[in-house]
């Protein structure tokens, strides 16, 4: 394992631990506004570090492509929480944070079907950029849902919710998944033909 991967894995673990502390146990945690923004920021930072960690493995992309994909992963990791507002049908933070029902983007089944469809599409069209974006989405939603599952469990529609995931299991998963996804990316990659186009994305 490269030194940079080890450093990033430790950083990822520390961000999850310190981030959770700041969001839920600091003196500002009483504030809904603070919790909402800090929680979203922690999701984004974990998504970013996970994407960088993914790209430390030899996945064969240009620096530019890695940068754009990591940015996409960071934004999506945080944007998943937008479904609180969609489910509440309101832009008020108070409505969004007092929901009993979780939004569609917090449904693990939704993301698994979404991933499957994208992978089928990628294997048919053989487009590298969609293949990479699929993995970025996988990193974004898996880190987000696993982190949330530490408090609320995973929502596996139509079977309901699992029990909350143990803190240590959540931290181990967050740290090892980027590497597993990188291996999967390399070994399951179809043979692509449009190299010129993909190098731009
Ligand atoms: Zn969430």
Notes on the protein architecture:
The structure is a single chain. With 201 residues, this protein is mainly alpha-helical. The chain has one domain (3-198). 71% of the residues lie in helices and 0% in strands. It contains nine helices and no strands. α2 (32-55) packs across α7 (128-152). The radius of gyration is 17 Å and the shape is globular. Mean pLDDT is 90; it is low at 195-201. The structure holds zinc ion (ZN).
Number of strands: 0
Secondary-structure element order, as H and E? HHHHHHHHH
Termini separation comes to: 28 Å
- The total tally of domains equals 1
Count of helical segments? Answer: 9
Strand content: under 5%
Helix content: over 70%
């Amino acid at each position: 394992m490269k030194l940079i991967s080890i450093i990033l894995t430790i950083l990822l673990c520390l961000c999850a631990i310190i981030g959770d502390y700041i969001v839920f146990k600091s003196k500002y945690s009483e504030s809904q506004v603070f919790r909402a923004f800090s929680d979203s920021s922690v999701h984004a930072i974990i998504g970013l570090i996970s994407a960088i960690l993914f790209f430390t493995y030899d996945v064969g992309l240009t620096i530019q492509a890695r940068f754009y994909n990591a940015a996409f992963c960071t934004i999506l990791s945080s944007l998943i929480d937008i479904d609180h507002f969609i489910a509440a049908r309101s832009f008020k933070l108070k409505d969004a944070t007092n929901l009993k029902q979780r939004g569609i983007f917090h449904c693990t089944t939704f993301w698994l079907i979404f991933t499957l469809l994208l992978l089928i599409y990628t294997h048919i069209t053989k487009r590298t950029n969609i293949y990479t974006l699929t993995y970025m989405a996988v990193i974004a939603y898996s880190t987000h849902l696993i982190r949330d599952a530490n408090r609320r469990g995973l929502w596996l529609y139509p079977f309901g919710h699992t029990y909350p995931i143990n803190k240590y299991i959540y931290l181990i998963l967050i740290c090892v998944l980027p590497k597993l996804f990188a291996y999967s990316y390399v070994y399951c990659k179809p043979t692509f033909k449009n190299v010129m186009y993909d190098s731009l994305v």
